[in-house]
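Work Package 3 (structural annotation) set out to generate three-dimensional models for the target panel prioritized at the project kickoff. During this period the team completed the workflow that converts sequence records into discrete structure tokens, so that structures can be stored uniformly alongside our sequence database. As a representative example, we reproduce one entry of 133 residues exactly as it appears in the project archive.
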Amino acid sequence: MSTHETTVLLFRNTMRITDGHLEDFRSAIVRAVAFAERNGPQLMVQTFVDEERMLAHSFQLYRGSDAVRTHWKSADPYIQEVMEHCQVEYFEVFGEPDADVVAGMKSALGDQCALTFSPRIAGFVRFTTTPGT
């Protein structure tokens, strides 16, 4: 895979949950992930919560930059709802999105958090299609 169009992208978003918003955050995430499962281009979405530290970690796997743009267009209301209950602390991009996606991420995140990019060296994806997992 040498072009941006065929580059797998993995996002790791670390969010600080606002005090007193844990249950609302959980509800918003459940709705957002359910929407992505039904309508989104992601190959995988997983979100984990560290209640003790009030942090959430979201991982999203995309086929490439076009899929990220599709996600942004369709899921914006869900993203906004989640962001009512948290602030992004770190956003890590594994892979090489195109310049348009990089600019969009920098614009959306501004100075609120660290944004890092790590180019892919090698790898593969293996998923099973077991219902309910």
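Residues 1-5 have pLDDT under 50 and may be disordered.
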